[in-house]
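Posting for a labmate who doesn't have an account.
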Amino acid sequence: MISRSRSLAACVAVTAAVTLAGCGGSGPAKHTSAPSPTRSSTPVPTPTPTPTPTPTPAPVNPLTGLAPSSNGVVAVKIDDTANGRPPVNLAAADIVFIEQVEGGLTRLMAVYNSTLPVVEPVRSTRANDPELALQFGAIGYVASGGAPNPLQVLHRSPLLTSINDAGGPGFSRDPNRRAPYNLVANLGQIAAALHPPQAKSIGLVWSSDTAALASLPAGTQIRTIVGGTPIAFNWDPSSGRYARLVGGVPERQSDGTPITTPNVIVQFCPVTPYPQDVDVMGNVSMFTQTTGSGRAVVFRDGHAIAGTWQRPAVA
């Protein structure tokens, strides 16, 4: 089974300075009418070149490779079904995970740090979410609510939570949508209340060097299944980004902005039934294990890079 994350990319340029050193010499010996000893000149020692200091790399956001942010990190559960589309400000997330839930459906966990916008539609938690979110640290976590067991798992974790059903801060309802697909979360207000930590490294390495990609297999179309949901991305060379397709059509936000990303990571994870969480239709929720190791494929610049992922522990 497959889970997938998307993240923003960046370039880093480094310049180096070079210091040059010079040297001088002595003049000729002086003579008089009477013979006199010739005075020898004292050689001037060659100056030691001044070492060139190693430039200090500019700090970057470990989640994007771009300029660092003073914001805390907040993860939000977002709907990923036709009833919940179009999403609001999903493209502003730094990383978005597409995870399997019950009934063959998918749900998103969007991770925000660069900006903390208003997002919609916020949905409920699942038991595997704390494991997934804690790779970023004890961050803020936002959801509408959840079944009793997943909520117990969440509250036993060190995540800083804002849950609408528990009276958490920052929520409102969109009068132009129907429940439960109309829950809005103001991430700026929630971060001000929770004080989540800033971004830390989760193992991503950022580079602008693409020379090695030329010899790798093409990765212009991504087609897979998460649960029972087809997942598709197409590479657009003119924009340098992958566009997510839903029903063969590029997905867009509520403002018409296409949902695109420079990178797509397909992470192969064990997925097992989670009988402690069953919906009203009798569908058993699924648990995606994101610790351990497994196969991964990174899609970048129209190429596919095969590799492995490894995460020894939850935190």
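Reply:
Got it, the structure tokens are right above this. Residues 1-40 have pLDDT under 50 and may be disordered.
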